[in-house]
Each structure stands twice: as C-alpha cells, then as structure tokens.
Design brief:
Belongs to the cytochrome P450 family. Its cofactor is heme. InterPro entries: Cyt_P450 (IPR001128), Cyt_P450_CS (IPR017972), Cyt_P450_E_grp-I (IPR002401), Cyt_P450_sf (IPR036396). It is found in: Membrane. It is a single chain. With 473 residues, the chain is α+β, with helices and mostly antiparallel strands. It contains 18 helices and eleven strands. Strands 1-2-7-4 form a four-stranded mixed beta sheet. Strand 9 and strand 10 form a beta hairpin. It has helices at residues 20-23, 28-39, 58-67, 98-110, 114-119, 121-141, 147-164, 177-191, 195-198, 202-205, 209-239, 248-258, 265-279, 281-296, 298-311, 327-339, 371-375, 419-436; strands spanning 42-47, 50-55, 145-146, 345-349, 354-356, 359-361, 366-370, 437-441, 454-456, 460-462, 467-472. Bound molecules: protoporphyrin IX containing FE. Protoporphyrin IX containing FE binds at residues 91-92, 104, 159, 274-275, 278-279, 282-283, 286, 342-343, 346, 408-412, 414-418, 421-422. Protoporphyrin IX containing FE (HEM) binds next to helix 13, helix 14 and helix 18.
C-alpha cells in the first residue's frame, strides 16, 4: 500500500511460495485467466518472491501500453538470459534507452521497413518454393510433413538469407542440422521454468544455476556458428573491399565502421541470435496451428482453397504482393493469432513505483499483459473458443498493436519489429500449402478429429507436432 493507493487485488499468497500453487501446472495461461475472472482485469500475485501484476482486459492493456507505455517498457530478465551477458546486448531485453533505440532503428530501417521488405521479396519467394518443393517430394513418396518443423526450417533460411545471404539449413540433405538444433536448444532452455526466477535468493547459493545449461547452447550459436559467419564476411570484405553485396550483415558492419557507438561486433552477434530466436518458433508454431484449425474444419479449407483458386489460380505459390487480394486467408491468420497467440503474455517490468488504473505497482514488479486472455474475452469476442475466421469480415480490429482487443505482437514502443514480415510469411506459407496440395492427417486420424492440446513453453505450441500428408492436386 502507498498513500491511499493499494496493490491490485489478488489471491492471498502463502508464505515463501506466494501464489505459485495457484498457477503451477502445464496451463498457467488458463489458470491466470480463471483467477482474473475472480480478481479482475488488473490483479496482483506473488510468484515466489516476485510481485507480479497481471493485466487481462483490453482497456487496462491500453492504459499501460499506450498511455503509460514508457513506465511499463522494461522487461524482466530471466536468469537464463544472463548467460554470456546476453541481456546487456539483446534488443529483446535491453531497457528502453539509447542502445536499445539504436538497435531498433537499425532493424526498422535496414531489415523491416516496407522498402527493404519489398527489395528482398524475391529471396523469400525462393524460400517458399523450397518449402513447396520439399512438400512435393514428400507427396511423391507418401511421406508426411512435420508442418511446424518444415516452417521452422523455412524461417531459419529466410532469415539467414536476409542477414548472411545464404541458407544455413538444407532440409533435403538434412545438413545444417546443427544450426537448427542449436537455435531449438536455446528456445527450449529459455522456455523451461526456473526457480531462480521466482526466488532470487537461490542465485546466492548457485549463482551460475541454469545459466550453465543454456550457456553452452548460447556459446555454440553466438561464439561458434554466428561468429564464424561474421568472421567469414570480414575476411571477404578484406579481400574485396568494394564488394557489392548488401545484406543485413553488410549494413551492420558498415554502420559499425561509421559509428561504433551505434553497434559493435558483440551487438551484431547478439542481434543475429535475437532474430533467429524471436522470429522462427513464433512464426512456425502459428503456421502449425493455422493448418490444424483449417484441416479440422472442411468448410474453412474449401472456402480458403476456392478464394486462392479464383484469385491466384490453383497450384501456384502465393507471393507477398497477392496477400491484399486474399481477404479470407488474412482472416484465417488473424483468427489463428487470436486463438493461439504464440506469445501468451507480454513480459514487462516497472523500474519505478507507478500508479495505474487507481492501483499501486511497486518498483521492480513483473507485469504480465495476458494476450491470450484478452483474445478470449467474451466481452469482445462472441463465442471466443470457436475458430471462426468470418468474425474478421466486418471487424475493423487488426493485429498490429493499434487495437488493444488483439495484441499478439504486443503494442507500444516495444511492439514486435518483425510483425509485417511475420504476417506476410504466415499468409504466403499457409496460402501456398493450401493452394498446392490437399492435406490429410497422418495415420488413421480424420482431419476433423485433430486435437488442439497446447504445450506451454517459450511459445504456446501444439502439444503434438502436426504430421500431415500432402496429396498433389
Ligand atoms: C507470428 C510471429 C510473431 C509473433 C506472434 C511475435 C510476437 C512478439 C511479441 C508479443 C513481442 C513482445 C512485444 C511487446 O513486449 O510488446 C515480440 C518482440 C520481438 N519480436 Fe516478435 N513475433 C513474431 C515474429 C517475429 C519475427 C519474424 C521477428 C524477426 C525476425 C521478431 C522479432 C522480435 C524482436 C527482436 C522482439 C523484441 C522487441 C523489443 O523488445 O524491443 N518477431 N514479438
């Protein structure tokens, strides 16, 4: 309590563990949504020793992410992320200050601006052809495609082409497995619950703790694989200083030479790691959910296929320029992001005492904006548990962080910088898969019976990978 302002309401914490018993389990997003129905859209809990404020309505989200954005713009740093001091270099975890600003500016101007995205469209189109080629090969042998994994590999190569102008994974030859596996290991370790995050005192007993576990994967990705790619480029630049290649690595190295304050060698490597970690699993698990939902409902599958056939023509790969003419496809992608946001909570922190919505939020509180709950709020969404792309026909709610009823990419100054790329890729991957093949579930399962069980980790993925057999049209 401060003055006449109190902490938001919440369940009574137990000694030591606080409210961990209220949320522990494999579905913490659902446990927190249930608690919010009792305690309201702004509630407080103790997660071990950490005061946590959970925001579960669009109105309160708008207050903290738009009106008081700066006060809520830091992030809690999980202990794992301190391995190799990643938090001191990472655009995802740096506080909103000059270093973070210059990294965001480099990303926005040189990788994600609409001009840059237009100019690099052909590279991504090639990766779509690789994905469809891979599915075609599976269709000839009758093999199933692990949709999430195929999309994960596609995203890795798509990013590696934008950054390094090369593929780092070859799904046909199963080479480049190391790169893919290391990115996956980093993701998996970062998603594991870690008691040191709830009980900072534990860090005194074992200061390295989880960092040892994740550290070796960070080390491999940062100091061996990414460093190797950067070294290789520096060598090429030495040999031919007037080389004409302009990819994101080249831009970062040029910027670093002109203004070492803006970005240095360490930041370049950590930024590459950030992009592979933030941009791959988020996009591939959303695509997997979209395929599951479409396969479960034949009327959605047929409607999407007939839109694609009418507008683009059957068996054609979808280009980014086509997306504007495919409104139903866009509705499917938005509905997937509403039902299955890969990032169920925005994780923020306040660095000072703050007052918001009449409550007191003490310095260093963790703040969770409950994206999943907001997207399932029955006050906004009729029949929220049903997958219904049609709801977006006449609805002017978008996913880009301006409409607080649906914020799968976050909002405010920390909004996801890769959102336009992610939306474009979700539409082109889904559209191309649907337009090139019919799909059936592997084994004896009827597509309509595919389950929607979730696995809570670094992303909210499907519990079992979707294995689907492509049938040539
Ligand atoms: C479906 C795909 C994606 C989803 C749902 C998603 C979602 C998010 C969310 C919720 C945040 C936190 C925003 C906040 O706190 O307000 C975020 C941050 C971020 N995302 Fe994405 N993202 C996706 C794809 C991508 C891609 C493709 C990239 C880049 C290649 C990317 C790069 C980043 C980065 C660098 C941040 C940290 C931004 C910062 O803290 O300043 N994301 N994303």
């Amino acid at each position: 309590k401060r003055g006449n302002k109190k902490l938001p309401p919440g369940p009574i914490p137990l000694p030591l563990i606080g409210n961990l018993h209220n949320i522990i389990g494999d579905q913490p997003h659902k446990s927190l949504a249930r608690l919010a129905q009792i305690y309201g859209p702004m509630m407080s809990l103790r997660m071990g020793q950490i005061t946590t404020v959970v925001i579960s309505s669009s109105a309160v989200a708008k207050q903290v992410l738009q009106k008081q954005d700066l006060a809520f713009s830091s992030r809690t740093i999980p202990d794992a992320i301190r391995a190799h001091n990643h938090h001191q270099f990472s655009v995802v975890f740096l506080p909103v200050a000059s270093r973070w600003r210059s990294l965001r500016k480099i990303l926005n101007s040189n990788l994600f601006s609409s001009n840059k995205l237009d100019a690099t469209q052909h590279l991504r189109s090639q990766k779509m052809q690789d994905l469809i080629g891979y599915c075609r090969k599976c269709s000839q042998t009758g093999e199933s495609v692990n949709i999430g994994q195929a999309a994960f590999e596609t995203m890795i190569n798509l990013l590696s082409n934008a950054i390094f102008s090369k593929d780092v994974v070859d799904p046909y030859a199963n080479s480049g497995k190391e790169f893919k596996d290391v990115v996956w290991n980093v993701l998996e370790e970062s998603g594991k619950p870690n008691f040191a995050d709830f009980f900072p005192l534990l860090k005194r007993i074992d200061p390295q703790g989880i960092r040892r576990r994740i550290g070796k994967h960070f080390d491999k990705l940062l100091h061996q694989i990414i460093k190797g790619l950067v070294d290789e480029r520096l060598e090429q630049r030495r040999k031919s200083p007037n080389g004409s290649r302009i990819d994101f690595l080249q831009v970062m190295l040029n910027t670093s030479e002109e203004d070492p304050q803006a970005i240095d060698r360490n930041h370049i490597q950590h930024l590459c790691l950030d992009l592979f970690v933030a941009g791959t699993d988020t996009t591939s698990s959303t695509l997997e959910w979209a395929m599951v939902e479409v396969m479960r409902k034949p009327y959605i599958m047929n409607k999407a296929k007939s839109e694609l056939a009418d507008v683009i023509g059957k068996c054609t790969i979808i280009e980014e320029a086509d997306i504007g003419r495919l409104p139903y496809l866009q509705c499917i992608v938005k509905e997937t992001l509403r039902m299955h946001p890969p990032v169920p909570f925005l994780i923020r922190k306040v660095d000072q005492d703050v007052e918001a919505c009449g409550y007191f939020v003490p310095k260093d509180s963790q703040v969770l904006v409950h994206v999943w709950s907001i997207g399932h709020d029955p006050a906004t969404w009729e029949d929220p548990l049903t997958f219904k792309p049609e709801r977006f026909w006449d609805l002017k709610i978008d996913v880009r962080g301006h409409d607080f009823e649906l914020i799968p990419f976050g909002a405010g100054r920390r909004v996801c910088p890769g959102l336009n790329l992610a939306i474009a890729k979700l539409c082109t991957m889904l559209g191309s898969l649907l337009n090139s093949f019919d799909w059936k579930a592997e084994g004896d399962i009827a597509a309509q019976d595919l389950d929607v069980e979730e696995k809570f980790g670094i992303t909210l993925a499907r519990l079992r990978p979707l294995l689907a057999v492509p049938i040539p049209l």
